[in-house]
From TrEMBL:
Database matches in Gene3D superfamilies: Glutamine synthetase, N-terminal domain, Glutamine synthetase/guanido kinase, catalytic domain
Protein name stated in the entry: Glutamine synthetase
Keywords from the UniProt entry: ATP-binding, Ligase, Nucleotide-binding
Signal peptide stretch: none
BP terms from Gene Ontology: glutamine biosynthetic process
Taxonomy of the source species: Eukaryota, Sar, Alveolata, Ciliophora, Postciliodesmatophora
Residue span(s) of domain GS catalytic: 106-356
Top-rank taxon, per record: Eukaryota
Record-linked SUPFAM superfamilies: Glutamine synthetase, N-terminal domain, Glutamine synthetase/guanido kinase
Length: 356
């Protein structure tokens, strides 16, 4: 997209005459494409009963042209960190007119799974890795326009202009998440130049997917302000000299966190191992390019686990072993995974399947 020059007048101070702006946000039909449009509403509107809406699904790969309406159902409301005031962001689910969720809407099935295991108090902490990239050439920020930067090593948690690029984007995003009240637990610069990470969690059950998708939306919006793009690809630079991007998913249940929980930890890891081959196909498009067994990843085909092992499918943190209770880290999911799919699959595999 061509950039505009900045506006001379700041219109955000204008009177909205008793109206608020509600930005309705949803996931489009291509599994990672977030969409949004806004409507204005009276200030007195009840935020727990926002109206359903609809959009042209034939433009988002969610419907055909002759039956194009897809319904938006509000699921979570946040203060808008860009427009400020009383303006809001509205995270929505998408439905076909017959009441069925659309093909890319996995929230409903996830919510059903979490409803069945509410008492287990499933917690998720998701580490979203991404790269900033130049829109003109689809090449990472921090990489020379043609060619490669010096090898990986100084970039992870790096400081200084020779190793860091895009800190302003990361910081704007962190502030935006905090403004929305998201459970963002931290951020860091990653192993590849131009690569960053933020963590959302711990969140309980369906809240994890809701917060992750809104956090992704906020990142796209923040990057817009700086004229850069976000790349969610698991392996943006196709060589093992360069790390891919993952979405490590940290997981615990009430029993895992309670005294004596280590037995439950081991039991759940065993179940995840048994489900490996059918789970792995849910972990993101092109994840097989990332899970090479190198660059701090496990091999796609083999399930492994180990204490403090960053080359394993599942890492047991040292603190979990030391306390004999706590959480585990599933290192398999890719940066472009759907958090509704991954969190509910983990809950289903570890808590529900044996009860079928
Ligand atoms: P790493 O050491 O793998 O880089 P991070 O610090 O980036 O780990 O992310 C760890 C994530 O796990 C954070 O989002 C954190 O909130 C989350 N977390 C911490 N404790 C738990 C727990 N008991 N259950 C689930 N997630 C947890
Ligand atoms: Mn129109
Ligand atoms: Mn991390
Ligand atoms: Mn990381
Ligand atoms: Mn991790």
């Amino acid at each position: 997209m061509d950039e505009l020059s900045s506006a001379v007048i700041d219109f955000s101070e204008r009177n909205t005459n008793g109206r608020i702006i509600a930005e309705y946000i949803w996931l489009g039909g291509n599994l990672i494409d977030i969409r949004s449009k806004c409507m204005t509403l009276p200030e007195e509107i009840d935020l727990d009963n926002l109206p359903d809406w609809n959009f042209d699904g034939s433009s988002t790969n969610q419907a055909s042209g002759h039956d194009s309406e897809v319904i938006l159902k509000p699921k979570a409301v946040f203060p808008d960190p860009f427009r400020l005031g009383s303006h809001i962001l509205v995270w929505c689910e998408t439905y076909y007119p017959n009441g069925e969720p659309t093909d890319s809407n996995f929230r409903e099935i996830a919510a059903e799974i979490f409803k069945k295991c509410t008492s287990e108090k499933t917690w998720f902490g998701i580490e979203q890795e991404y790269i900033l990239y130049r829109k003109e050439i689809s090449w990472p920020l921090g990489f020379p326009v043609s060619g490669y930067p010096k090898p990986q090593g100084p970039y992870y948690c790096g400081v200084g202009s020779d190793v860091i690029v895009g800190r302003q984007v990361m910081d704007a995003h962190l502030r935006a998440c905090l403004h929305c009240g998201l459970k963002i637990s931290g951020t860091n610069a990653e192993v590849m130049p131009g690569q960053w990470e933020f963590q959302i969690g711990p969140c309980e059950g369906i809240e994890s997917g809701d917060e992750m998708w809104v956090a992704r939306y906020l990142l796209l919006r923040c990057a817009e302000l700086f004229g850069v793009c976000i790349c969610w690809d698991p392996k943006p630079v196709m060589s093992n000299d360069w790390n891919g991007s993952g979405c490590h998913t940290n997981y615990s249940t009430l029993k895992m966190r309670s005294d004596g929980g280590y037995g439950v930890v081991k039991n759940h890891i065993e179940k995840l191992g048994q489900a490996h081959s059918r789970y792995i196909i849910l972990t993101g498009v092109d994840n097989e390019k990332r899970l090479s067994g190198r660059c701090e990843t496990s091999d796609l085909k083999t399930f492994t686990f180990g204490v403090a092992d960053r080359g394993a499918s599942i890492r047991i943190p040292r603190v979990t072993e030391a306390n004999q209770k706590g959480y585990i880290e599933d290192r398999r999911p890719a940066s472009n995974m759907d958090p509704y799919v991954i969190t509910s699959a983990i809950a289903d595999i570890t808590l529900l399947e044996s009860a079928h």
